[in-house]
Amino acid sequence: MLVIPSIDVQNGRSRLVYWPGAATGVGSPTDRPDRIAERFVAMGAKLIHMVDMDGARAGHPGNLEAMGRIAGRVAVPLQVAGGMEGAANIRLAFAAGATRVVVSMSIADRPELLHDCLEVAGDWLAVGLDPRPERIAAYPWHRSAPPSLIDLAGELVDHGVRRFVLSHGGAVLDLGFLAELVKSVRADLFVAGGSQRTGAGTTTVLDIDAIKGLRDTGFAGIILGEPLLSGAIDFAKALEAAA
After folding, report:
1. What structural domains and CATH numbers belong to the chain?
2. pTM here?
């Protein structure tokens, strides 16, 4: 199973400063996405995930230069989420250096747009899904009744989607449910997240044992941002747990 570092990019910079030697005062901090990506690749990352936070708000790519700098510095695939809904948006991201994209769950209600995106990205397009039943039920679907997660994923697979990213919103993972999902869905499944924001700050809800459990379910990878950048989860130990 892949352990995929994620970098939230806003105005060309990482939302979080990365300083792996902060506790001992070794090294230097950086908020440059390309340097953060380079450090994780040097430690064994096989894929980098970037969230274009400006793009997510605007509905089109907002950090193309940052994508280009990351792609120019590392020799691993770059996956981008945020503002990727639309063939033209994906072409811009690919031209900048991205090689994979993630589009939002809303695309399930727009089959023509999904088809256009798949025409450009093919198997390197993933759809982000929220696996929490209450979130799916509350989503403003343009259909008579909200679908179940398994039915929604099956529908998207029938359209040609081969990859899904499940964003669990900081909720504790239900490994039994995820194992059943792997058996039911004919696609590669990834989990994104690992931290939960509360009034008291940010809490890491994943640990090494949870990563091992996720590996054993048959998931293709886990995407981790703040837990890795903050040092709450050690990247080397996470790679070992996922192997």
Report:
1. 2-242 (3.20.20.70)
2. 0.92
Distance between CA atoms of residues 85 and 101, nearest Å: 9
Q: What is the secondary structure of the chain as a DSSP string?
A: -EEEEEEEEETTEESS-B-TTTTTT-S--B--HHHHHHHHHHTT-S-EEEEEHHHHHHTS-S-HHHHHHHHHH-SS-EEEESS--SHHHHHHHHHHT--EEEE-GGGGG-HHHHHHHHHHHGGGEEEEE---HHHHHHS--SSSSPPPHHHHHHHHHHHT--EEEEE-TTPPP-HHHHHHHHHH-SSEEEEE--EEEETTEEEE---HHHHHHHHHHT-SEEEESHHHHTTSS-HHHHHHHH-
pLDDT in tens, 54-104: 999 999 999 999 999 999 999 999 999 999 999 999 999 999 999 999 999
The span from the CA of 192 to the CA of 165, in Å, is 6
For residues 177-205, give the mean pLDDT.
75
Query: What whole-number distance in Å separates Cα of residue 65 and Cα of residue 68?
Result: 5
Phi, psi of 78 (to 5 degrees): -115, 120
Query: Mean pLDDT across the chain, nearest whole number?
Result: 91
Nearest Cα to Cα of residue 4 among 170, 182, 187, 189: 189
Q: How far is it, in rounded angstroms, from Cα 241 to Cα 90?
A: 33
Please give the Cα distance from 2 to 44 (Å, whole number): 10
The candidate with the shortest Cα–Cα distance to 1, out of 35, 31, 33, 46, is 46
How do residues 126-172 score in pLDDT, each as one tens digit?
999 988 888 888 889 999 889 999 999 999 999 999 999 998 766 67
